[in-house]
Amino acid sequence: MGKITAVANQKGGVGKTTTAINITASLAAAEKRVLLIDTDPQGNSTSGLGLDKDNLEGSLYDLYTGSKTLDEIIKETSLPFLNIIPSNIELIGAELELAGKDHRETILKNALEPVKYRYDYIFIDCPPSLSLLTLNALVAASSLLVPMQCEYYALEGISMLLRTFNLIKDSFNPALEIEGIVLTMFDGRNSLANQVSDELRKHFGDKVYRTIIPRNITLAEAPSHGKPVILYDIRSKGAQSYLELAKEIMENEARIG
């Protein structure tokens, strides 16, 4: 049954969507059945996997408004083992429509129940804010994966995220755990980056992945071609890092399971 992991950080610009796209693509390349849910109205995971977000025949908005079922909005991607539930700017409207509904925080969780068995992994790309969309993602998820850039404000950002995590765990989803923290946009020549990395490892121990994602131009270029980095340039440092991270995730899963 598909493990549901929310990819979230309330701070923007930390490589959250890049991580969601490339972890799911790398797991799919290992022939794991993967579903990526784009729950960010910017729709960057959607366009980053080659879908035209301005011309979608069904999206996450339709699920929240009740006009389509989950099966009707799941789309295939260029990777045989990777499906996506796409989104676009319409999703902003769903927040307004959800505001007055009973049990509005469990809509995504309930919708995923019948399809979980089809996937090995389900990842949810969250918006960089604590909204009803993020709340739905964290209530549906069993774990939280946090992409984090090694800079001064990152440490400030994670304390805010942990407060949110504890609030949701206490109030809505007691099963929610921290899957891991992945260091992104890392530049080893920068002494501050190394300092922040050391602080995080000291505080979170083995919750910080061994694999570090470097600052890499290929990772920045791939989305404009509508491709995950392993399809854009598999030899690049960015592609190799995400393949290594996917391998680490699978090893952790095998060890726990």
Cα distance, first to last residue?
Answer: 12 Å
CATH class identity:
Alpha Beta
CATH superfamily: P-loop containing nucleotide triphosphate hydrolases
Q: How do the strands line up in the largest sheet? A: 3-4-2-5-1-6-7
CATH architectural label: 3-Layer(aba) Sandwich
| Strand/helix succession | EHEHHHEEHHEHEHEHHHH
Mean of all residue-level pLDDT scores = 91
Percent of residues in beta strands: 5-15%
CATH topology: Rossmann fold
Percent of residues in helices comes to 40-55%
How many domains would you count in the coordinates?
1
Radius of gyration: 17 Å
**By helix and strand content, what is the structural category?**
alpha/beta
Backbone shape? globular
Q: What is the β-strand count?
A: 7
- Biggest sheet layout: 7 strands, mixed
List its traits.
257 residues, alpha/beta, Rossmann fold, 7-stranded mixed sheet, 12 helices, 45% helix, 14% strand
Break the fold down into its secondary structure elements and pairings:
Blueprint: E1 3-7, H1 16-29, E2 34-38, H2 44-48, H3 60-65, H4 70-73, E3 75-76, E4 82-85, H5 91-98, H6 107-112, E5 121-125, H7 132-140, E6 143-149, H8 152-171, E7 177-184, H9 191-204, H10 217-221, H11 229-232, H12 237-256
Parallel strand pairs: 1-5, 1-6, 2-4, 2-5, 6-7
Antiparallel strand pairs: 3-4
Structure, explained:
It contains twelve helices and seven strands. The model has no long low-confidence stretch (mean pLDDT 91). Strand 6 (143-149), helix 8 (152-171) and strand 7 form a beta-alpha-beta unit. It has helices at residues 16-29, 44-48, 60-65, 70-73, 91-98, 107-112, 132-140, 152-171, 191-204, 217-221, 229-232, 237-256, and strands at residues 3-7, 34-38, 75-76, 82-85, 121-125, 143-149, 177-184. The chain has a seven-stranded mixed sheet with strand order 3-4-2-5-1-6-7, sandwiched between helices. With 257 residues, it is α/β, with parallel strands linked by helices. The protein has one domain (3-256): Rossmann fold, CATH 3.40.50.300.
